[in-house]
Every structure is written in C-alpha cells, then in structure tokens.
Amino acid sequence: MSSQAIHPVSTATASAPTPEPPQGREKPFFHDLGDRVGAAPAWAISAAVHLALLLCFGGIYYEIVIETVPDITSEMEEVDFEEYKFENAVVTEEIGNDSPINIASPSKAAATEAGMKPQVEMQQQIHKEIAKVETPVLDEIPPPNQMELVEQLDLSGTTEHPGGVEGAVDILTQEIAASLRERETVVIWLFDASLSLKDRRDAIADRFESIYAQLGQLEEERSKSALETVIAIFGNDVAVLTERPTSDIAELAEKVRNIPADESGNESVFMAVNHVTDRFLRERTRARKNMMLIVVTDERGDDYALVEPTVSKLKRYSIKTYCVGDAAPFGREKGRKAYVMPEGDTMMLPVDQGPETVYPERLQLGFWGGRFNDLELMSSGYGPYALTRLCAETGGLYLLTDEPRVRFDPTIMRRYLPDYRPIAIYERALVVNKAKAALVQSATATQADSVPQPTLLFPAKDDNELRRAVTDAQQPIAVYEYHVNRLVALLSEGEKDRPKLTEPRWQASFDLAMGRALAQQARAFGYNVVLADMKSSPKPFQGPQSDQWRLVPSTEIAGGPRVRKIAEKAEEYLKSVIDDHSGTPWAMIAERELSIPMGWAWQEQYSMVERFGERARDPDVVRLLLAEEEQRREERTATPKPKRNLPKL
C-alpha cells in the first residue's frame, strides 16, 4: 500500500478543466470575441457603435406626396342624364343588410317595390299623402284679459317721469295688476297730510274709481277680496283711516278727499312706513298675500335717518314700495313750492325736498352780475335720496309728478346717476378720498350760509354821499369774502385726491365747485379793490346829468397779478367741466359762470333814467312820476299791512 496521502476534492469549488482545442486547429472567431473587444481601445468601440447607429437610421425613409391642385375653369361639364335612368335597372335581392332576421330592411323594401318609373309614382304618392291632411277644427279661444295685454317692463328701482299725477297712477295700476296676477294683494296708500299736498290727494281720489275699475277683471278672476286697500296718513304723527283692508271704492275715495290737514310742517314718512308695515304684516303673512306700499308726498321726510332699518325690514318681507313725489332740487336741500294764500295771492314757500344724494354736492353760491333763478332752483331729475333708495332697494319705483323746465339727455345722464348705496358706504368714501370730503363739507357750509348780493348802484350827488354808499357796500362783502376764502382753502386741500376721482359725477361736482369758488374769490377781491379806490379818490362824472355810479362786470381784473392768477385758474376748471361733461347740469352752470366777466368797471348813470327809463328825459314827466311815487310811499307807510304767518308746508 502506497503511503501517498489522499486529498479530498470539494464539489463546490472544483470545476472541470476546460478542454483544449485539438492541436493544429484555430479557435472560432466568436469564441473569444469578448476578450478581443475588451482588448480594443475605447475610440474604436465608440466608432463602431456610432457606425452601427448611422446604418440603422439610414434605413429609415419617408415619402412626400405632392397633390396637384386642379385647375378651376369657368365651364361646367354637361351631365348625360341617360346614365341615371332606371328603365334598364335590375333589382336583385342582394341589396339590404345582412341581418339574421328574415325581414327586409327599409332600403331593401323600398328597392323591391320600386316601379319602372319611380319618380312619377313617388310624386303621386306624395300628393296623395298631402291631400289626406285636413285642417283641425279648433275650439274658439276666449280673448285675453285686457290688463294682460299691458307690456310689463322691468323698471324696478328707477326714477320715472310718467307725466304728472295721472301718468303716475296709470303706472301704479299696471304694477298692482302684475301683483294680482301673482296672488291676492293688499295695497297701502300712505298720504302726506301737509297743506301743500291737497291738490295731489284730490287728483288721486278722483282716479280711484278708474283704477279699481281697470283692476276689476283680475279681481273677479280670483275672488271678491283679491284686492284690498288701506288708507293711512302721516305728518307729525301717523293715523290709519281704514281699520281693516277694504274693497269699497267709494269709501276709499271719500276718506282721501277728507284727510285733515297737518299744519306742523313735519313729515315722519319713515316712521309711518314702519307703523303700517308692523300693523298689517301679520295678517298679510297669514293670508299669504302680497303687500305693496304707495307713498304720496312732495318732500323728502324729516326722519330720513331711519332709511337703513326701514329698507332692511321691507326687503326682508319682500314689500315693494312706490313713491309719487317731486324731484329733488339739484344739489340742494331746500326747494320752493307755490302756495295760494287765503288772501288769494301765490307765494313761493321753502320746502325740504333734497338733495338727490346723501349730502349736498353743489355749492350754493349766487351769480354776481346777473340773476339766474332757473339755475338756482334747477331740478335734479331724481327723487330725494332716502325715498328713492327705499323704492330702489325694494324693487319699486319713484314716480316724479313735476316736469323739470330743463331736460337733459337720459343717455348722457346715465353716467351721472346718484349713488344709492347705503349711507355707511357713502361716508366711508368721504374718509378715503379727501376731494370728496372737501366737496361735501364746502357744499354743506354754503347751504347754511346766507349769500349776500353785492351792491352795484351807488348814489353820488356829492363825494360824501358816494363814500357813505361805498362803506355800506364793503361791510357785507368783507364777510362774504371771508367765507369764500375758507371754501377755496377747503377745496384746495382736496385737490390732492382729485386725480383719484373716477366717477363722472364726483369729477364734475368737484371741478365745478372749485371753479365757482375761485371765480367768486376773484370777483370779491376785485370788488373790494375798486370800491377802495373809489372811496379814496372819487371819480368825476363826464355827463352833466349823471348823479350815480354803477359797477358792471368787466374783463379788466383789478387787484394785480394775484387776482388775475386766481381768475385764470377758475377759468381753467370751468372750461374743463364744459369740455368733459357736455350736456349735463354741471356744464350748464359752468357756462353761465364763465359768461359773467370776473372784473369790475365803473359806469356813470342818471338816477331818473334808472328809475323811470327814457321818459325821465322830459322834466314834466319826471315831476308827474315823482308825485305818483310819493303818493304810493305815503300809502305804504300810513296803512302798513300786518305781518302774515306763513304756513309750514
């Protein structure tokens, strides 16, 4: 036994030896390709890969198909209609669809039934089918209700010009009819009991019968109580004249005619609206009826501070409110109302009718050198803010009974509508913008201040009389000049925010206020200058009969460069109003202001000509006229008329 050690072989690690190729033969090419590639340099491998990619991409190709556009000719080819005749057509059973159901398709059925001349047979079939159609006999349609033929326009929340009380009543009739078509309705007429409204109340009472006669058909279609009415009045207090809603037309008209006059001068309109709403709301809700409020007045109401809670209540209960009233004066609180006194004469008495905005936005300044009452009492064309807002927020209408003397194009004025948003939003805008705040503050100040008119005529029989007249004229104008200077200073503070004004109404109002305040400042300053010069060195008369001096507007501005600069700035503002807001009340007022020169000039006169005209040239006529005037003066002083107590409208 051999002593040679036996070493075990592990099957996990041992591997069979690689057989060597037979001697004399070469190894295969791909046998050691990996070894050869691994031994090749990197650039060769990269070149080979890129060459292979290029060969692959080179094998991809695409075709470009070029379509030729056929030439368009003006000649049309003639069609041979013989090719489309059906005389030689052979109909087979192969047409139709391949449905497994043994029913011929519509196309197949039509094909098998086609005759030799299908066009003629088809026309005969169509004529036969049409001939069978008979006009159906319709039942007679009853004519519609006449009220249903009235076109319903969406006018809610607007100010309308119906053409007086009669037109306003016609529109209200349509609104009541629209409510009746929806459901049964309770209408509450709320009348202002003031003295100034007597004629309007009587006019509405006269039309009550026609109102309810027109609504009678709609009422009968529902029930006898479909339309019920309440009459209430307001002044210093509120009173309901009909305890319960009624349909008695005669009773309603009689109660309106006999409304007792309230002489307090107070109009608690919003308190009255809340009172009647609370009183009849529960009954209206229980009966599921509509409720409408119709306010008849000619003023704004003294308790307009209650507008916000009143609006909220009526909106919450969907109670539409309408107002038959007057237009607010343009940018002013006080209007004028004609009233016939017991003695028979007519007087223009002040009434609270405005403004059309929350606060006044127009300076209340006179026109020096001319009287323009038409501009001072110009209508705004809109109702007072509080009542118009109440109508707008509840979906009603403010109906104007008075027609303004000057009408402006409504398409232009649409850009200048008053702001009917809540008072809190309006006041917040005043805090944010200094120009708005300055305008409202200055306009409010001029509502309270009395505007003195300058003295233009100065007697001058001698120098002492002239000096006394000049001194008397200077005192009120000195006070007025102080107020005008304050207005200009206030508006000048707002000029910083003038570029921030984007609303056309605010732009026009501020520019007009600034232009007018500057113009009045130039006139007042120049007025004092020419008076001071005349007082220090009186001018001699040129005419032998002249015995007084008159100040007339002139383009020559006294006072030096400072006053001329003020006048130029005023002219710039006023011209911008005319150019940028043509066709509006602001432009009209600016034109009138510019039509009066801002300087002053002296003009000598003969007092008799001033008093009696050209007849004063004859001495005999002058003596006669003076005697008559003296007699009238004695009559006035001998029997003075007692002071009359003017009524409060």
Automatic annotation (TrEMBL):
Concerning InterPro entries, the annotation shows: VWF_A, vWFA_dom_sf
Start and end residues of each VWFA domain: 186-325
Q: Which SUPFAM superfamilies match?
A: vWA-like
Q: Where is this region: Disordered?
A: 1-29, 628-649
Q: Where is the composition biased (Basic and acidic residues)?
A: 629-638
Regions of biased composition (Low complexity) lie at 8-17
* Transmembrane segment boundaries: none
Name the UniProt record assigns to this protein: VWFA domain-containing protein
